[in-house]
Amino acid sequence: MKTPWYETSAGATAALLATRQFVDVDLYWLKLAGAPLGVSDLFYSAGAIGVAVPGFSWPATGPTFDQDKAKAVGHWKTGLDVDQWQVVIAPRLVDPMTGSPFPDAIGSQPWLAAAQAGALDGAEVQVDRAFAPAWPAAGTGFLAPTGIVTIFYGRVAEIDVGRSQAVMTLNSTLKVLTNPLPRNLFQASCVHTLFDQGCGLQASSFAVAGTVASSSGATLGSSVAAPAGSGTYALGRIVMTSGASEGFARLVRNWVPGTFTLAAPFPFGVAPGDGFLAYPGCDKQFATCGRFQNAANFGGCLSIPVPETAV
Length: 311
Prior knowledge:
- The protein is mainly beta.
- Helix content is 7%, strand content 32%.
- The protein is built from three helices and 20 strands.
- It has helices spanning 12-19, 111-117, 286-291; strands spanning 6-7, 23-31, 41-45, 51-53, 56-58, 64-65, 73-75, 84-90, 105-106, 109-110, 124-132, 147-161, 166-172, 208-211, 214-216, 219-221, 237-240, 249-256, 259-262, 275-279.
- Strand 9 (105-106) and strand 10 (109-110) form a beta hairpin.
- It starts with 5 loop residues before the first strand and ends in a 20-residue tail after the last helix.
């Protein structure tokens, strides 16, 4: 048995399982990348009752997990094969008690709409199983488990959103071992991404705060000044810091003073007065690296030596 990350006392979980008389419920902890819509963590109980321990709680009032005939499916293998977990999630479209639409939401947006817009992209998910001697009496609140064991940990690989439910597929962190090697190839352009570990620059040092003046589809108007470094936002990004699309980012396809042309519109639109952070772009050329005063970290090949010919 895996070591519980929570239990009421040392060895209590193993002792409970040894009795063969216990109840269990699966728990989902979604850790969202970039805090889209102002949300960084989501906690859900897949059972009919919520679970609570000191510092954490998983309510059962959210979306339905593990529907009948659509149980969560997972596989584990010994070795370096990527483990996988797949689950069907069905948010409520209407609150059965009040009739209010979309009671299950991520931030200010309906759950499925937010998932479709990419709120769960890159999210890490921890699937736990809580064990207790018996279910609590009806109406007494949350289940207080004897122990909680993590049965799967991975990252969202794919989420297929339908009209009333979403199918979420998780890959274990072994997935990073499938990245092709060597990581760096000889090429004229820089192999690093601006502000990544290889580049070494800090994004926060180049962020420029702005306010939306106008918006139409993928075009956004704002009077922010040119950024430091490359001096242009083209190939950079914009991250909304307020408004309906708070936390979402979009690639800047082109920029002229006063106007951003984005690769795609923001999922829930932007309105005049919404705040954002804009980051400069980089075309990965050596001259641009020099404008960032970062030529020492240029990751391209300036010249390829020709081997000497034997005489």
